[in-house]
Protein backbone atom coordinates (compact mmCIF):
# COMPACT_ATOMS: atom_id res chain seq x y z
CA UNK A 1 0.00 0.00 0.00
CA UNK A 2 1.33 3.44 -0.88
CA UNK A 3 2.03 6.20 1.66
CA UNK A 4 -0.84 8.23 0.20
CA UNK A 5 -3.24 5.32 0.62
CA UNK A 6 -2.17 4.76 4.20
CA UNK A 7 -2.40 8.44 5.07
CA UNK A 8 -5.84 8.99 3.59
CA UNK A 9 -7.42 5.89 5.13
CA UNK A 10 -8.13 7.43 8.50
CA UNK A 11 -9.48 5.57 11.56
CA UNK A 12 -13.13 6.40 12.15
CA UNK A 13 -13.91 8.64 15.10
CA UNK A 14 -15.07 6.79 18.19
CA UNK A 15 -18.85 6.58 18.54
CA UNK A 16 -18.39 6.70 22.32
CA UNK A 17 -17.92 10.48 22.41
CA UNK A 18 -19.84 13.50 21.20
CA UNK A 19 -17.43 15.40 18.93
CA UNK A 20 -19.86 18.08 17.77
CA UNK A 21 -18.61 21.66 17.83
CA UNK A 22 -21.11 22.50 20.59
CA UNK A 23 -19.84 19.74 22.87
CA UNK A 24 -16.17 20.41 22.11
CA UNK A 25 -16.84 24.01 23.16
CA UNK A 26 -17.98 22.74 26.58
CA UNK A 27 -14.97 20.45 26.80
CA UNK A 28 -12.61 23.37 26.10
CA UNK A 29 -14.08 25.17 29.12
CA UNK A 30 -13.51 22.05 31.21
CA UNK A 31 -9.89 21.85 30.00
CA UNK A 32 -9.30 25.42 31.17
CA UNK A 33 -10.78 24.60 34.56
CA UNK A 34 -9.01 21.27 35.03
CA UNK A 35 -5.54 22.10 33.67
CA UNK A 36 -5.46 25.92 33.65
CA UNK A 37 -3.62 26.06 30.34
CA UNK A 38 -2.29 29.52 29.44
CA UNK A 39 -3.69 29.80 25.92
CA UNK A 40 -6.71 28.56 23.98
CA UNK A 41 -7.22 25.03 22.74
CA UNK A 42 -7.69 25.24 18.98
CA UNK A 43 -9.01 23.08 16.18
CA UNK A 44 -7.48 22.46 12.77
CA UNK A 45 -9.37 21.35 9.66
CA UNK A 46 -8.26 20.60 6.11
CA UNK A 47 -10.50 21.40 3.13
CA UNK A 48 -10.43 19.87 -0.32
CA UNK A 49 -12.21 22.93 -1.73
CA UNK A 50 -11.10 26.37 -0.52
CA UNK A 51 -14.61 27.67 -1.22
CA UNK A 52 -15.87 25.58 1.72
CA UNK A 53 -13.32 27.28 3.96
CA UNK A 54 -14.50 30.72 2.86
CA UNK A 55 -17.99 30.02 4.22
CA UNK A 56 -16.78 29.80 7.83
CA UNK A 57 -18.14 32.71 9.93
CA UNK A 58 -15.51 35.18 11.12
CA UNK A 59 -12.77 33.78 8.90
CA UNK A 60 -9.63 35.89 8.53
CA UNK A 61 -7.12 35.52 5.73
CA UNK A 62 -3.44 36.58 5.79
CA UNK A 63 -2.54 39.93 4.25
CA UNK A 64 -2.04 39.46 0.52
CA UNK A 65 1.59 39.26 -0.47
CA UNK A 66 2.85 38.35 3.01
CA UNK A 67 4.09 34.90 3.98
CA UNK A 68 3.73 33.21 7.36
CA UNK A 69 4.89 30.04 9.04
CA UNK A 70 2.18 27.65 10.19
CA UNK A 71 3.32 28.05 13.80
CA UNK A 72 2.68 31.80 13.54
CA UNK A 73 -0.84 31.05 12.35
CA UNK A 74 -1.38 28.65 15.26
CA UNK A 75 -0.15 31.25 17.73
CA UNK A 76 -2.47 33.93 16.38
CA UNK A 77 -5.37 31.56 16.96
CA UNK A 78 -4.39 30.26 20.39
CA UNK A 79 -3.38 33.66 21.78
CA UNK A 80 -5.57 36.19 19.96
CA UNK A 81 -8.52 33.90 19.32
CA UNK A 82 -8.48 34.37 15.53
CA UNK A 83 -10.16 32.02 13.06
CA UNK A 84 -7.60 31.87 10.25
CA UNK A 85 -7.62 30.22 6.85
CA UNK A 86 -4.74 29.61 4.46
CA UNK A 87 -4.12 28.17 1.03
CA UNK A 88 -0.83 27.18 -0.59
CA UNK A 89 -0.16 30.87 -1.36
CA UNK A 90 0.25 31.82 2.31
CA UNK A 91 3.10 29.68 3.78
CA UNK A 92 6.68 29.95 2.60
CA UNK A 93 6.77 28.77 -1.07
CA UNK A 94 7.70 25.14 -1.77
CA UNK A 95 8.57 24.65 1.90
CA UNK A 96 7.76 22.37 4.78
CA UNK A 97 5.10 24.56 6.39
CA UNK A 98 2.69 23.83 3.56
CA UNK A 99 4.25 20.43 2.89
CA UNK A 100 3.58 19.07 6.37
CA UNK A 101 -0.14 19.90 6.14
CA UNK A 102 -0.47 18.60 2.59
CA UNK A 103 -0.92 21.88 0.72
CA UNK A 104 2.21 21.42 -1.39
CA UNK A 105 5.08 19.07 -2.13
CA UNK A 106 8.29 20.53 -0.66
CA UNK A 107 10.75 21.62 -3.33
CA UNK A 108 13.82 19.61 -4.23
CA UNK A 109 16.01 22.05 -2.29
CA UNK A 110 14.21 20.86 0.87
CA UNK A 111 13.84 17.17 0.02
CA UNK A 112 17.48 16.81 -1.03
CA UNK A 113 18.61 18.20 2.32
CA UNK A 114 20.33 21.19 0.73
CA UNK A 115 18.17 23.77 2.52
CA UNK A 116 19.20 22.72 6.06
CA UNK A 117 22.66 21.40 5.25
CA UNK A 118 25.26 23.37 7.19
CA UNK A 119 22.57 24.92 9.40
CA UNK A 120 20.95 22.10 11.39
CA UNK A 121 23.01 19.23 9.98
CA UNK A 122 26.74 18.84 9.42
CA UNK A 123 26.36 16.68 6.33
CA UNK A 124 23.95 16.47 3.43
CA UNK A 125 22.88 12.89 4.12
CA UNK A 126 21.75 13.70 7.68
CA UNK A 127 19.81 16.65 6.30
CA UNK A 128 18.23 14.49 3.58
CA UNK A 129 17.22 11.82 6.08
CA UNK A 130 15.59 14.47 8.25
CA UNK A 131 13.32 15.31 5.31
CA UNK A 132 12.73 11.69 4.33
CA UNK A 133 11.60 10.64 7.81
CA UNK A 134 9.29 13.61 8.43
CA UNK A 135 5.55 12.95 8.87
CA UNK A 136 3.55 14.82 6.22
CA UNK A 137 -0.03 14.81 4.96
CA UNK A 138 0.35 13.69 1.33
CA UNK A 139 -0.14 16.56 -1.11
CA UNK A 140 -2.83 16.57 -3.78
CA UNK A 141 -6.04 16.12 -1.83
CA UNK A 142 -6.34 19.34 0.19
CA UNK A 143 -6.18 22.97 -0.88
CA UNK A 144 -6.89 24.88 2.35
CA UNK A 145 -6.56 24.71 6.12
CA UNK A 146 -8.34 26.56 8.94
CA UNK A 147 -7.45 26.99 12.59
CA UNK A 148 -9.96 28.29 15.13
CA UNK A 149 -10.38 28.28 18.90
CA UNK A 150 -12.50 25.36 20.07
CA UNK A 151 -14.56 27.77 22.17
CA UNK A 152 -15.70 29.52 18.94
CA UNK A 153 -17.38 26.29 17.71
CA UNK A 154 -16.72 27.22 14.06
CA UNK A 155 -15.26 23.88 12.96
CA UNK A 156 -17.90 21.16 13.22
CA UNK A 157 -15.97 19.10 13.92
CA UNK A 158 -12.26 19.91 13.48
CA UNK A 159 -9.98 17.20 12.13
CA UNK A 160 -7.76 17.60 15.20
CA UNK A 161 -7.69 19.51 18.48
CA UNK A 162 -4.41 20.87 19.81
CA UNK A 163 -3.19 22.79 22.82
CA UNK A 164 0.08 23.82 24.43
CA UNK A 165 0.82 22.73 27.99
CA UNK A 166 3.60 22.48 30.53
CA UNK A 167 5.15 19.04 31.12
CA UNK A 168 3.03 18.59 34.28
CA UNK A 169 -0.18 19.48 32.43
CA UNK A 170 0.86 17.19 29.58
CA UNK A 171 1.39 14.12 31.74
CA UNK A 172 -1.89 14.66 33.58
CA UNK A 173 -3.77 14.85 30.28
CA UNK A 174 -2.08 11.61 29.17
CA UNK A 175 -3.14 10.09 32.51
CA UNK A 176 -6.65 11.23 31.62
CA UNK A 177 -6.45 9.50 28.24
CA UNK A 178 -5.46 6.31 30.07
CA UNK A 179 -8.15 6.57 32.79
CA UNK A 180 -10.79 4.42 31.11
CA UNK A 181 -8.86 2.68 28.32
CA UNK A 182 -5.16 2.12 28.87
CA UNK A 183 -2.68 2.42 26.06
CA UNK A 184 0.92 3.60 26.00
CA UNK A 185 1.46 6.92 24.25
CA UNK A 186 4.72 7.43 22.39
CA UNK A 187 6.36 10.70 21.35
CA UNK A 188 8.26 11.24 18.13
CA UNK A 189 11.07 13.79 17.89
CA UNK A 190 11.90 15.03 14.40
CA UNK A 191 14.13 17.77 15.83
CA UNK A 192 13.80 20.98 13.86
CA UNK A 193 10.42 21.12 12.05
CA UNK A 194 8.72 19.63 15.12
CA UNK A 195 5.29 20.61 13.76
CA UNK A 196 5.70 17.35 11.85
CA UNK A 197 5.50 15.55 15.22
CA UNK A 198 2.39 17.43 16.35
CA UNK A 199 -0.22 18.63 13.88
CA UNK A 200 1.51 16.96 10.91
CA UNK A 201 1.45 13.50 12.50
CA UNK A 202 -2.02 13.98 14.02
CA UNK A 203 -3.52 15.12 10.71
CA UNK A 204 -1.85 12.26 8.85
CA UNK A 205 -2.59 9.40 11.25
CA UNK A 206 -5.50 10.77 13.35
CA UNK A 207 -3.65 9.62 16.45
CA UNK A 208 -2.74 11.56 19.57
CA UNK A 209 0.66 13.17 18.99
CA UNK A 210 2.85 14.77 21.66
CA UNK A 211 5.81 16.92 20.74
CA UNK A 212 8.55 19.17 22.04
CA UNK A 213 8.25 22.37 19.95
CA UNK A 214 11.35 23.22 17.96
CA UNK A 215 13.57 26.31 17.67
CA UNK A 216 11.51 27.79 14.85
CA UNK A 217 8.23 27.36 16.76
CA UNK A 218 9.76 29.19 19.70
CA UNK A 219 11.38 31.94 17.61
CA UNK A 220 8.57 32.61 15.13
CA UNK A 221 5.56 31.11 16.90
CA UNK A 222 6.41 32.53 20.32
CA UNK A 223 6.22 29.17 22.09
CA UNK A 224 7.49 29.44 25.68
CA UNK A 225 10.48 27.49 26.99
CA UNK A 226 8.31 25.27 29.19
CA UNK A 227 5.57 24.50 26.66
CA UNK A 228 4.89 21.16 24.98
CA UNK A 229 2.24 20.50 22.36
CA UNK A 230 -0.52 17.89 22.22
CA UNK A 231 -2.54 17.27 19.05
CA UNK A 232 -5.29 14.66 18.72
CA UNK A 233 -8.56 13.76 17.01
CA UNK A 234 -11.67 15.18 18.71
CA UNK A 235 -12.74 11.88 20.28
CA UNK A 236 -9.37 11.58 22.02
CA UNK A 237 -9.78 15.13 23.32
CA UNK A 238 -13.15 14.14 24.78
CA UNK A 239 -11.60 10.98 26.26
CA UNK A 240 -8.84 12.99 27.91
CA UNK A 241 -11.29 15.44 29.52
CA UNK A 242 -13.42 12.57 30.80
CA UNK A 243 -10.30 11.04 32.35
CA UNK A 244 -9.19 14.33 33.91
CA UNK A 245 -12.56 14.57 35.64
CA UNK A 246 -12.14 11.01 36.93
CA UNK A 247 -8.66 11.76 38.21
CA UNK A 248 -9.90 14.92 39.92
CA UNK A 249 -12.51 12.89 41.82
CA UNK A 250 -9.68 10.60 42.96
CA UNK A 251 -7.81 13.66 44.28
CA UNK A 252 -5.28 13.92 41.46
CA UNK A 253 -5.54 17.48 40.20
CA UNK A 254 -3.56 20.32 38.68
CA UNK A 255 -1.52 22.09 39.94
CA UNK A 256 0.30 19.18 41.52
CA UNK A 257 1.12 20.20 45.12
CA UNK A 258 4.77 19.45 46.00
CA UNK A 259 4.97 17.14 49.00
CA UNK A 260 8.57 17.85 49.88
CA UNK A 261 11.82 15.96 49.33
CA UNK A 262 12.48 15.44 53.04
CA UNK A 263 9.08 14.17 54.22
CA UNK A 264 7.97 10.56 54.63
CA UNK A 265 5.93 9.88 51.43
CA UNK A 266 3.81 7.19 53.08
CA UNK A 267 1.66 9.85 54.75
CA UNK A 268 0.84 11.47 51.43
CA UNK A 269 0.41 8.18 49.56
CA UNK A 270 -2.05 7.00 52.19
CA UNK A 271 -4.59 9.49 50.82
CA UNK A 272 -4.56 7.73 47.46
CA UNK A 273 -3.55 4.23 48.59
CA UNK A 274 -5.13 3.60 52.04
CA UNK A 275 -3.41 0.21 52.33
CA UNK A 276 -0.07 2.05 52.53
CA UNK A 277 -1.01 4.14 55.52
CA UNK A 278 1.53 3.93 58.36
CA UNK A 279 0.59 1.33 60.97
CA UNK A 280 -0.22 2.57 64.46
CA UNK A 281 2.38 1.61 67.04
Written description of the protein model:
The chain has helices spanning 3-8, 21-35, 50-53, 70-80, 96-100, 108-111, 124-132, 167-178, 199-205, 215-220, 234-249, 265-272, and strands spanning 42-47, 59-60, 83-87, 144-149, 160-165, 209-211, 228-232. Helix 2 crosses helix 11 (234-249) and helix 8 packs across helix 11 (234-249). It has one domain. It starts with a helix and ends in a 9-residue tail after the last helix. The radius of gyration is 20 Å and the shape is globular. It is 37% helix and 12% strand. By secondary structure, the chain is of the alpha+beta class.
Summarize the structure.
It is built from 12 helices and 7 strands. With 281 residues, the chain is of the alpha+beta class.
Share of helical residues:
25-40%
- With helices defined by DSSP (H or I, 4 residues minimum), what is the helix count? 12
Strand order of the largest sheet: 2-3-4-1-5-7-6
- Report the principal-axis shape: globular
How many strands in all? Answer: 7
- In sequence order, what are the helices and strands, one letter per element? HHEHEHEHHHEEHHEHEHH
First-residue to last-residue Cα separation: 67 Å
Protein structure class: alpha+beta
* Overall number of structural domains: 1
On the 0 to 100 scale, the average pLDDT is 92
Amino acid sequence: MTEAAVATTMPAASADYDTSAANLQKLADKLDRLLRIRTLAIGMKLYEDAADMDRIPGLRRPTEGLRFTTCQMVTQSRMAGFTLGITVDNPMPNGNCGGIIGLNVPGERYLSGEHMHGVWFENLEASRQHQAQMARVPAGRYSALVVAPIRAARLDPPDIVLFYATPAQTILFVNGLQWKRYRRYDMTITGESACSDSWGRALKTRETSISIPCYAERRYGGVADDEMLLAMPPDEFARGIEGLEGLAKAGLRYPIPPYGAHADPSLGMAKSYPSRAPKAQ
